[in-house]
Amino acid sequence: MVNLKTTVKDIGFTHEDFAALLDKYDYHFSPGDVVAGTVFSIEPRGALIDIGAKTAAYIPIQEMSINRVESPEEVLQSNETREFFILTDENEDGQLTLSIRRIEYMRAWERVRQLQAEDATVRSQVFATNRGGALVRIEGLRGFIPGSHISTRKPKEELVAEELPLKFLEVDEDRNRLVLSHRRALVERKMNRLEVGEVVIGTVRGIKPYGAFIDIGGVSGLLHISEISHDHIDTPHSVFNVNDEVKVMIIDLDAERGRISLSTKQLEPEPGAMVKNRELVYEKAEEMAAKFREKMLAQKQAKAGIDIPVDSIDADDDLSDEILEDVPSAMEEDLPEVAPEAAAAAPEAVLDLVEEEIPPATVE
């Protein structure tokens, strides 16, 4: 019998060396990174994703979409490769937590900022109302319309499911606030058919100590108390009643702030006529408006052709600079905390959320 003796050559490469070699070529992943990953296992409430780490990463179902999903298969397919946001660092098992929702939020904020920069009018359906206003969704984000910026005679509760044209008032990702105006969208559309110096007929819809709100073709203009008459007026209630039909002149159109400023003082053929003889004011309205337009044209010509806005007449509207304290969060709910080092990459993770009139609405 031939005795074969095998000699194992010492190659000087231990298990520890092999592990060190793996570590050398292991990618370092940090919370806040956006990485490519491949779905290799779908579970009832989540999925395992291969992103090249030692251990498969995990994405829970609530992080799969900006909208509510009932099963992972609505969003992911086996062997699908796509981008994922690293939400948290490795747990005790070395597993990372991923998110698609966070990427969608980042892109949604980018889109609404672009829409705001373009001064675009968007349309969205009201899905809920609260004491302060109405809630809509814009690019998946929850937007808030303050009650003072809703131009409709309907009760707010009846606006649910109604689609409204809207303009952006505030887009603030850091504070998680998305505020819109229905009034401004309507005013802008109406302004395209209105001119400063034009006489219009409207209806008194509200009276405040500082003036009267006049409905002119579905949008509201402010007749400030200082623009009612050349005579001193103690209160607008001494001149007008709600539902009065009035003839007024437009003295300023501010599309950016969604304001229409009105005047009857400029229509008075003699000081105090609006108080003493309102019918005379209405009778002479077109004649006085023509004189006003001539005066404005002369002012422009005197300024060597420079277009000067008709803002020398102060017509304050306290709605334009209101402080909105009860603006609901633009996110549907609190997002999971991201590690501090990821805050710069995902500012929406560190949110100064505001108390809401109603609980955060869930996506149906």
Task: Describe the structure in your own words.
The structure is a single chain. The chain is an alpha+beta fold and 364 residues long. 18% of the residues lie in helices and 28% in strands. It has six helices and 15 strands. The chain has helices at residues 15-24, 101-117, 182-191, 273-276, 278-283, 285-302; strands at 34-43, 46-50, 57-60, 81-88, 97-99, 122-130, 133-138, 141-146, 163-172, 177-181, 199-208, 211-216, 219-224, 245-254, 259-263. Strands 3-2-1-4-5 form a five-stranded antiparallel beta sheet. It has a five-stranded antiparallel beta sheet with strand order 8-7-6-9-10. Strand 1 and strand 2 form a beta hairpin. The longest helix has 18 residues, at 285-302. It is elongated, with a radius of gyration of 32 Å. The termini are far apart. The model is unreliable at 307-323 and 338-364 (pLDDT under 50).
Which key phrases capture this entry?
15 strands, 364 residues, 18% helix, 5-stranded antiparallel β-sheet, disordered C terminus, alpha+beta, 6 helices
